[in-house]
TrEMBL record:
Domain (O-methyltransferase dimerisation): residue spans on this chain: 17-108
Taxonomic source organism: Ipomoea pes-caprae
Keywords assigned: Methyltransferase, S-adenosyl-L-methionine, Transferase
Protein name: Flavone 3'-O-methyltransferase 1
GO molecular function: O-methyltransferase activity; protein dimerization activity
Span of domain O-methyltransferase C-terminal: 133-338
Family: Belongs to the class I-like SAM-binding methyltransferase superfamily. Cation-independent O-methyltransferase family. COMT subfamily.
Length: 356
């Protein structure tokens, strides 16, 4: 019994030390994204193992750099499946190819990857908020981001074009894989001819939906005026600017993705009430959001959802949050939606269908 207890205590000590040092992981990810290491190794699909020196000669063609320090970063990230390590027979050299996780950082033909998502999460203004997470407990009237930067994240982004651009690129990198899963797995657009995308940014998601469902002849991309002003012309889509808290253009169905999570319950009710007023009887609000399980477990998906919940609390709204199915059902019921269904067609997002 004593040895078992000692083993458990030692494991606990290792775990708490690992958690305390966890910042090494995202910061090292930032480093390899900034250095464009994934593309240097991938080289159009060869994924041939390279030494740290060979990687440096590719990412820093003018010379310089510390190969040993790069190797230290690569080795640590190998333990998380970002890279695969290849050691020669006499152990004199380590070479690295991309693991499955690392492949998500490779730039695709559309110029997207999960690299922008990594960088977006760890910009200076966001990093300043993290030491203040306890303040969300002490005083939840404003989120740590406001306390660190003096204003809310969305207005702060609006004044920083480079931050706003990175956020949009990050969302695009995450959205494309989801939209493919969504379009393959969700079949709720029957009878819809006019579809409104709330918070649709440049209209990319709406364009993909219309391509998959040609029966939808009118697409309305609805976002802030300053956002849709920069949106490109897309056949079949009209860009409309406005305020979702006040009113939303009419449609047979309303689509939104990752919109409700960053708002408090009363703000979600205001958004959903605008949607309710824009729909005919029988019309649907189709919301794609991360949804928490009722019970906490240690699966990777649950951890990701709970980590994302703390991110929302820290950066966007101290009382914004990831919600359970039941919490979404109650929000929908509170504004008048008569039925609610959830579909799990993706590894992260759930599709929430509210019917009027």
């Amino acid at each position: 019994m004593g040895s078992e207890s000692e083993s458990a205590q030692n494991s606990a000590r290792l775990t708490i030390m690992e958690l305390a040092n966890m910042i090494s992981v995202p910061m090292s990810l930032n480093a390899v994204v900034r250095l464009n290491v994934a593309d240097a190794i991938w080289q159009g699909g060869s994924n041939a193992p390279l030494s740290a020196s060979e990687i440096l000669s590719s990412v820093l063609p003018s010379g310089g750099g510390d190969a040993l320090n790069l190797q230290r970063i690569l080795r640590m990230l190998t333990s998380y499946g970002v890279f695969r390590e290849h050691i020669n027979a006499d152990a004199s050299e380590r070479r690295y190819s991309l693991g499955e996780v690392g492949k998500t950082l490779v730039t695709d033909k559309e110029g997207l990857s999960y690299g922008a998502y990594v960088l977006q999460h760890h910009q200076d203004a966001l990093m300043k908020a993290w030491p203040l997470v306890h303040e969300a407990v002490v005083d939840s009237s404003s989120e740590p981001f406001v306390k660190a930067n003096g204003e809310a994240a969305y207005s702060y982004y609006g004044k920083k074009p480079e931050m706003n651009g990175l956020m949009q690129k990050a969302m695009s990198g995450v959205s494309v894989p989801f939209m493919k899963a969504f379009l393959d797995g969700y079949h709720g657009f029957q009878g819809v001819t006019r579809l409104v995308d709330v918070g649709g940014s440049a209209g990319d998601c709406l364009r993909m939906i219309l391509e998959k469902h040609p029966s939808i002849t009118q697409g309305i991309n609805f976002d802030l005026p300053e956002v849709v002003q920069k949106a490109p012309n897309i056949p079949g889509i009209t860009h409309v600017g406005g305020d979702m808290f006040k009113s939303i253009p009419n449609g047979d169905a309303i689509f939104m993705k990752w919109m409700l999570t960053t708002w408090m319950d009363e703000e979600c009710r205001a958004i959903m009430n605008s949607c309710y007023g824009a729909l005919p009887q029988g019309g649907k609000l189709i919301a794609c959001e991360p949804v928490l399980p009722n019970e906490t477990d240690d699966t990777q998906r649950t951890r990701l959802l709970l980590e994302g919940d703390i991110f929302v609390m820290t950066i966007y709204r101290a009382k914004g949050k990831h919600r359970t199915e039941e919490e979404y059902r109650q929000l929908g019921r509170s504004v008048g939606f008569r039925s609610f269904r959830a579909f799990y067609v993706d590894f992260f997002f759930a599709v929430l269908e509210f019917q009027k």
